[in-house]
UniProtKB/TrEMBL annotation:
This is AB hydrolase-1 domain-containing protein. Residues 32-102 form the AB hydrolase-1 domain. InterPro entries: AB_hydrolase_1, AB_hydrolase_fold. Pfam families: Abhydrolase_1.
Length: 211
């Protein structure tokens, strides 16, 4: 067993359309390794990007205080993109960043069906349903600002890991290759990244060695 570092907090950021128990396998594995995972409370991750980033940032602050130091941000799919945006805002609170199947190079380049669902949410938002993506998140200033941030360099002392799979049918693997992260291929479906043995093997030594 690899030695667990003093700062053991991990904040898990779920993907688009997440439900109860979304990160249960990841949570169980982290706890078995001695970490203290917390789950970002962002509902089903269907809301405005700016608002969700602010929510995750507040929970990052709280988990860092609760665990006594900087924590690892670990996000799946859209959650990885949110985690990256938060890491840019608060690098002093982040010990490392993990993105699982996160198409950070072009979030609208994901599976067309999923992007179509996102566009449908903006229509529902326009007719008055709250807490959903708005058109601004896909075509307006919210989209442009966050797209630029996703392309921005990460702080040089912030270790980052982008895991991708050639079998992924939701997030095309080339879009998951963050140029400022260590990019590692794993064998998994998109949803399976939360429980894949390859993922846990890649995480074990890196989480332990990140300072």
């Amino acid at each position: 067993m690899v030695e667990v570092p003093l700062s053991r907090g991990v904040l898990l950021v779920p993907g688009f359309g997440s439900g109860p128990g979304y990160f249960a396998p990841t949570d169980a594995w982290l706890r078995s390794c001695g970490y203290e995972p917390a789950h970002a409370s962002i509902g089903r991750n269907l809301g405005c990007t700016d608002e969700l980033v602010a929510l995750v940032e507040r929970q990052l602050v709280a988990h860092a205080e609760a665990t006594g130091g900087p924590v690892v941000l670990l996000g799946h799919s859209r959650g990885g993109a949110l985690a990256r945006l938060v890491a840019l805002r608060r690098p002093e609170l982040v010990r490392g960043l993990v993105m699982l199947g996160s198409p950070v190079r072009d979030v609208l380049g994901a599976n067309r069906f999923v992007v179509g669902l996102a566009r449908g949410l903006t229509w529902l938002s326009a007719i008055g349903l709250r807490g959903l993506l708005t058109a601004d998140c896909l075509t307006g200033s919210c989209f442009r600002t966050n797209s630029l941030a996703l392309a921005a360099p990460l702080p040089p002392r912030l270790p980052a890991l982008a895991l991708y799979s050639l079998r992924d049918r939701i997030a095309p693997w080339r879009l998951c290759l963050d140029p400022y992260a260590e990019c590692v291929a794993v064998r998994s479906s998109h949803t399976g990244l939360r429980a894949a043995p390859d993922v846990f093997a890649a995480l074990e030594s890196r989480l332990a060695n990140w300072k």
